[in-house]
Structure formats: C-alpha cells, structure tokens
Design brief:
Elements (H helix, E strand, L loop, with lengths): L6 H12 L5 E5 L1 H9 L8 E5 L10 H7 L4 H10 L5 E4 L3 H12 L9 E6 L6 E4 L9 H17 L7 E5 L10 H12 L3 E6 L11 E3 L2 H26 L3 H9 L1 H11 L7 E4 L4 E4 L6 H16 L2 H11 L1 H4 L8
Parallel strand pairs: 1-2, 3-10, 5-8, 6-7, 6-8
Antiparallel strand pairs: 4-5, 4-9, 9-10
Helix pairs in contact: 1-2, 1-11, 3-5, 4-5, 6-7, 6-12
Keywords: Acyltransferase, Cytoplasm, Lipid biosynthesis, Lipid metabolism, Phospholipid biosynthesis, Phospholipid metabolism, Transferase
Subcellular location: Cytoplasm
Catalytic activity: a fatty acyl-[ACP] + phosphate = an acyl phosphate + holo-[ACP]
Amino acid sequence: MGGDFGPQVVVPAAVEAAREGIAIALVGDEAVVNAELAGCDAEGLDIRVVHASQVVEMDDKPADALRRKKDSSIQVACRLVKDGEAHGVVSAGNSGATVACGMFVLGRIKGVQRPALAGILPTEKNPVVLIDVGANVDSKPQHLFQFGLMADVFARDVLGLDKPSVGILSIGEEEGKGNAAVREAFDLLKKSQLRFIGNVEGRDIFTGEVDIVVCDGFVGNVALKLSEGLATSLGRILKDELKSSWLSKLGTLLSMRAFKRFRKVTDYAEYGGAPLLGLKDIVLVAHGKSNQLAMVNCIRMAATSVRNRAHEHLVEKLADHQGLNGKSEKSAA
C-alpha cells in the first residue's frame, strides 16, 4: 500500500517477480489489492493476498504508527515474517515506520547495537554501498564499526563482491582526520578482518575505487539526497542544452544509445531499495517514488539475500569480531 503509486506499481511488480519463481504475499487492503491483481496475468503464480485494515501514511510518526496502527500493512507484513510465514519484507511506504516495525516486531540480531540502512549508488565502475543512510542520526564509533561488518556481508552475498574494500567517510584521506567518532571507528576497522582502505572523502564515493563507504546516518542521508538531487538537476540541464540548437539536436540523435546507457547506470531503479541490515530477518526499504522496475529489483534483492543466507553469514561475521564488538545494547523485543 506504500509509496507514491501504491498498489498500481507494487502489484504488477510483485506479479513480475512471481513469474521468476519468487513466492509473494501482498499485504494491504484486500479489495484494492485484488482489484489490481485482476488486471494482471497472475493465474497459476504463487501469490496470496493478506488483508490489513490500516495503512501508515507518509506523514505518520513511526512511534504513533506502531502504537495506533497495529493492523497496518507494514506491521502485518513484519508479523508474517516473525511467524515464519514469509522470509522478508519489502516496503516503499513510510521509511521511519518500516525501520521501527523491523526493529520492534522482528528485533535485532544478537550483538547488533544499531541496524543500518545500506544505500546502493552508481559509480564509474561497480555500485558502491553507502551505510548508514538514515536509520541512525547520531552514531557512536562502535555503531560505525558494525555498519562496516554488516555491509561487507551484504556486498559479498547480494552484490557478489569477493573481497569488498571498506572506507570510512571523513574530511580528509590522512589517518587522524575527522571527528572523534570517525577516528575511533577508524582504529576499530583497521584492526578488523575487513579489507579496510582508510578514510575516503565525499568526492571518492562515485569513483568506484571503494566498494563500501561507512558513515553516520545523518551524513549518509544528506549525501544520498544530494547525489539524487544532483543527478536529477544535471539530467535536466543536459536535456535543455541538447535542445538548445539544431546542431545539438543532431548530436543527441547520434548519441542516443550512449545516453540510454548513461541513464540506466544512474537510475536508482536499477538498484532496488535499501536493506535494513542487522535485523533477525530481511527488510528492504524501497524509494517512495519507486516505479515498477525499482520494486521488482527490490524484491529480487530480498530473495537473493534469503537464498544466499546473508543473515547467517552476518551472525558469523559478528562472532569473528566479538573482541572488537564491545558490549551490545539491550536488544529490541
């Protein structure tokens, strides 16, 4: 029921994913969902509809959504996973409510202090994982260290990277740069088994020279939104320039294939959504403006996470670094 387009996009995307062999449970207003399903060729596919009488609106506060909307689609979906009736949750709705439900309905993996959202961004080479992009707005060094551990497992199991490189976002490349949290997290990452390459600056994110960039959720969210806005604005500027003269229009026609490839590389829809790492089960937060392609890719990512046992590998990774993990905070129920 979530996202700017709701069932009109989510249902067709789910049908497309189901055609690839992924079992789907569509959670929401049964009448609305079935009406959308009727317009799709879903006969014989492994799709079921689970009714939820409430919807978390985009302006609802996460805490209020948890308390007052216990039959909301996102809570019902999380309970399906908790009860073993599904393996993961994908939502394009209220991201704060999705994070809250993931934490308080599903709970954290033992030893994880703060779950983190991992954004996937295009670069000059392979996609880069930026973590955290908004789940935590005041991270401690231990949290940043664990973000690196969790992103390493995700990059291996979902993105297929053999030995992902990890950097921490700072204001300079030299060791010792950054605030106290960054400097302390640097030391923890340096002592770990990760392929840690040290500090990286904002300009390094899109070069493709680093696979994982660790940062506080406040900083990461600003970086994410800045990159989205910059890409959109550059696209508009380029479009206007290409229409400015007959010579430019001719050049556009000759370069159409290159422009299409460029658009595909920079389109967030190609990378699905942001996984909320550190929970006992799989939760993916899709962009509110997600189109059908974005939702299909988000569902595929969730299925890949389950098939490749990303959760089990994360538990193992945390155990391997128990000495650096420190004392965990009281886990969510």
